[in-house]
Amino acid sequence: MRILLLGDIVGRSGCREVCASLPSLRRRLAADLVVANGENAVDGQGLDAATYGDLRKAGVDVITSGNHIWQHKEIAPLLDGEERLLRPANYPIGVPGHGTAVVEAADSAVAVVNLEGRRSLNALLCPFATARQVLDGLSPRPRVVVVDFHAEANDEKEALAFHLDGQVSAVVGTHTHVQTADERILPGGTGYLTDAGMCGSSTGVIGMDPDLSVERYVTQMPIRMQVHEGPAVICGVVLDVDPDTGRCRSIERVREP
């Protein structure tokens, strides 16, 4: 089984590029399942119903998210109603939506789990404990389980991967918009990459307007960032997973200009 996981989709340029390129990219990579983080898809923060629909039509099977998913009020009923749209599972009880989806791919069940880190982000429930609770609650538990860990700190991401090594097929980080080069398979068979990167402007600062980014740091003023409408890049990772054991057989970064 081959799974393509795309990093944060940022703004219109990222959405346009994913919608235009994903069908051919999916065929070329022979991906059985496509997961993408959509929390920055609308103006750099949040997701709305129209954009969710466009990404699903383009071939994204499951859309994960993170701390910016709450930006648009219309997202609450969408999170409750769409089983393939996730928010991090470690938000408190009673929050709209759900953090896990079980879907079919290559004639096998696949669980996609969305978690959010706590370092430099929100004071949520423990992602380590939540991950265990989610896995224990899957009945039956699919052999193939992929985790999108939306987190800031590299060590928190690595620690979660070792915490779940041998229990899930892969832990892939999102959130920083910068693709890392540390892809590897841990001793228990779990594939790992600290950050998948982003799908957005390759000539901006993490997909945002570079002039505003510079001004913000030079002046230290709370300047609102804006999505940069430049040539886009698609970043992510391809996982080759054994559907019989759930072990990751190979992990390879994807970067498509």
Outline the structure in words:
- The protein has 257 residues and is α/β, with parallel strands linked by helices.
- The protein is built from 6 helices and 13 strands.
- It has a single domain, classed as Purple Acid Phosphatase, chain A, domain 2.
- The strands form 2 sheets. Strands 1, 2, 3, 4, 11, 12 and 13 form a 7-stranded mixed sheet that branches.
Describe the structure using short key phrases.
257 residues; Purple Acid Phosphatase, chain A, domain 2; 6 helices; alpha/beta
Q: Helices and strands: which structural class?
A: alpha/beta
- The proportion of residues in beta strands is 25-35%
What is the β-strand count? 13
What is the CATH homologous superfamily assignment? Metallo-dependent phosphatases
Radius of gyration: 17 Å
Q: Give the CATH architecture.
A: 4-Layer Sandwich
The top-level CATH class is Alpha Beta
CATH topology: Purple Acid Phosphatase, chain A, domain 2
The share of residues in helices is: 25-40%
Number of helices: 6
Average residue-wise pLDDT: 96
| Distance N to C terminus | 25 Å
Q: Which residue ranges are poorly predicted, with pLDDT under 50 across at least 5 consecutive positions?
A: none
Strand and helix layout:
Blueprint: E1 2-6, E2 8-9, H1 11-29, E3 33-37, H2 49-58, E4 62-64, H3 75-81, E5 100-105, E6 108-116, H4 127-137, E7 144-150, H5 154-163, E8 170-174, E9 184-185, E10 191-193, E11 198-201, H6 210-219, E12 232-241, E13 248-256
Parallel strand pairs: 1-3, 2-11, 3-4, 6-7, 7-8, 8-10
Antiparallel strand pairs: 1-12, 5-6, 9-10, 11-12, 12-13
